[in-house]
Amino acid sequence: MSLCLISTSRSVPSSLFRRSFLSFNLRLLSSNQYNNDIIQAEKQQLKLNPTTSKQSPRFRRYHYYLFSIATGALIGTIYALRHVRKHEGNLPEYVTNVELLERKAIETRPVPPPVTKHITFDALPRKNFPFNITLYQYVTCPFCCKVRAYLNYNRIPYDVVEVNSVTHTETKWSLYNKVPIVVIENEQIQLNDSSMIISAIESYLRQPTKNFKNIINLYEAIVQKDQKGNISFNYPNRYFIFEPAVLDQLETTNEEQQSIINKQSKSFFAKLFSRSTAQSNNDSKTVQSENTDRKKSYEENEFERQWREWVDNKFVHVISPNIYCTVRQSISTFRWFSKAGDWEEIFPWYQRWIIVYLGAIVMRGVAIHLKKKYNLNDNVRISLYECGDEWVNTIGDKDFH
């Protein structure tokens, strides 16, 4: 390269121009030499540190992965926040001042209530229950039937308010929008949920208290309100029978204590001197059945609670599919309900017509839904018989009351 430049400079005619041309070429050669020195130094450095060329792609991949993870986390966070804000209104709102709301609601209840029937008994109650009860019900509701059966068994008098299943006019005052509802008239206390109603009354019968509110305080409700303002009640301990605090318990009088002693002595002598006649056996069974003061064991209470849950969670769901098998059968069933519930005397003809025909169509749809939801047999009678067999086989020869 230098020889070529020197030969070229010799061909230049002017000495001054030749001198400037040579100086330019020398600077060019020196710069090229400098660049070559830099390149050689870099190559030498690469030879001394061979890992540098290998790490640079790894570093690039590392930065790429880190950027990808950060981007994904950012996108996921934005999506989650938008999703939460979108459904924030659908999250349940827990109501804390339930007692105050229920007290205000029951103050708006029509008094006296529109009672449609008074239920009384010739015999005395099995145990003293000194409160007046009003039962708001549908005559067709299995949960209402359960409460009626319990009250009838214990011979507790009560008043019935038949609720229009379409308009719910009779229970519009209540925050609880289902039936049955029981009102303890003496203390203006509202009881909701069939299982909770039975448990509360049974707790009082086993251990009376100074007032019924001491019993209700043992059954705290979890109340939720959705976006539409609908309120739902849940009683987690509705299947439990509680013994109230000692200070809340009602002290038994001398007459009641003497009555308990007499019942126990009659039961003892009936067993000791058992007679062979049929009448004596019947008397002994009557004394034993009336003597309900014995406290149940933990195993008995657990067994009772288990089958109460079974009734609500399994057995009740096979009833509707068996009585609303077709639309025609549903209409026929509601016509029978109209006669059994004395709807002709309670509701006007147009309300009765709506309840019968609209209710029949709605309950037919409910029956189809229950059959699919609980995977019942195509022949729903078989599912009903299976539940009956399960109950009978479990109870066996045990006493049931």
TrEMBL record:
* Annotated GO CC locations: mitochondrion
Which keywords does UniProt give here? Membrane, Transmembrane, Transmembrane helix
Q: Where are the transmembrane segments?
A: 62-81
In its UniProt record, a GO molecular function of this protein is: prostaglandin-E synthase activity
By its UniProt entry, which PROSITE patterns does this protein fall under? GLUTAREDOXIN_2
| Ranges in a coiled coil | none
UniProt domain GST N-terminal: residue ranges:
135-203
Q: Which PANTHER family match?
A: MICROSOMAL PROSTAGLANDIN E SYNTHASE-2, PROSTAGLANDIN E SYNTHASE 2
Q: What is this protein called?
A: GST N-terminal domain-containing protein
Species, as recorded:
Rotaria magnacalcarata
